[in-house]
Amino acid sequence: MIFIGIFIFAFLMWRAVLPLKCRPALKAAAGAAAFIAAFKFKIIQIFGGHYFAPDLPREVILLSAWVFVTVFIFMFLMVIGDTFLFGVTCGEALHTLLKTKKCDAKKLLRQHPLLNKVHAAELAAAAVVAVFGMVNGLALPQVRHLTVTSPDLPPEADGKTVAVLTDLHVDNINDRKKMEKIVQLTNELHPDIVCLLGDFSDGVKKRHLDALEALTELRPKYGVYGVVGNHEYYSGYRILTDHFAALGIPLLFNENRLIPRLKLRICGVTDSQAARFNETPSDPEKALACPEKDSWKILLCHRPRGAREHAALGADLQLSGHTHGGMVIGFDRIVAALNDGFVRGSYKVGDMHLEVSSGTCLWNGFPVRIGCRSEILLITLKRPAAGTGPRISTPPSSSSSDSPEIIRGEQEADVLCRDLPSLLNA
Hints:
This protein is of the alpha/beta class and 426 residues long. Helix content is 39%, strand content 14%. It has helices spanning 2-17, 24-38, 40-48, 58-100, 105-109, 115-138, 176-187, 206-212, 230-235, 237-247, 284-288, 307-312, 332-337, and strands spanning 142-149, 161-165, 193-196, 224-226, 255-259, 264-268, 296-300, 317-320, 345-349, 352-356, 375-382, 392-393, 406-407.
């Protein structure tokens, strides 16, 4: 995070602070504000103990997040605005050259007279958009319905439903009250199975553990199954996994559980961060190994990365989160690149269906959504009618046979963005 702070601070000083035409004291104040915004995570760590799980009041966390999100959007708008103004300057220089046969090369290097006014407008717009994005990001999740059709699905599982909750990120913002509302919304769907895909908590204090107890009120017919995410290793892996064991919620560590009545295998792997913390590394081959040949395998994997390997190992359906759906349109392309091209929605990977949830909540470090919503995913498993199969279409941008294909489910039209962290690999 320190290198990100250095980059942000340098960019703000170069493009926004140094071009200011004002008294030195005001310019110094603007530089100080840029420093605070750029090194927000380091400052949070100093006063809150850890930037992933700061022990600070809710209002402080939200204010610091708003400042950082505003700066993030402001930088994006500056790139667009400054490029436009430079294009205008080049156009004026070209017009002068054609008219007078003279070219003032120095003019191309001069500051455009409207630069500071444009920056002020961009900063104001960024502040407003940040408020909108945070309100959207902190809202209760919507329910997204999806049908996954497979000819290999056991008849016993036909019509059964799977609810998916991921990236709950319990903290001072996503508290017990919010967890109870999410559990209530999930129970109202009457799912047969509930799958939890990790990043449960950003902290292991009593209030975090108490909030997670709300998950014991989930009431699926055939049980709750979960896996850990990367944030469990940052927050307190042993404490959290022991707490889930005490709550009676099974977490799968490179293992699987058979639901005999449905002939479904729920398989789960640990996160790729495990080895870094000297914990059990991810072993999908072990997780997907089972004695019977007719069971249908649902793989719970916090990250969508590795989906092609999982498909080759025999997974029928992979459920993942981690990406938060890319959070912001445009930024989603970066998130996708960090996750093997998968960011949110439905993909066909070999013979396997991959479903990447946008997440049920968000991490407090960047709690913004623009172009996607938090979600509770409800999947209906179906066998195809005679002579039919799943409808598959290749996205227009896919030119390689290795590119993931997007499946259009029966109700996927409700998804705001099919193909949109830490997040990132943080």
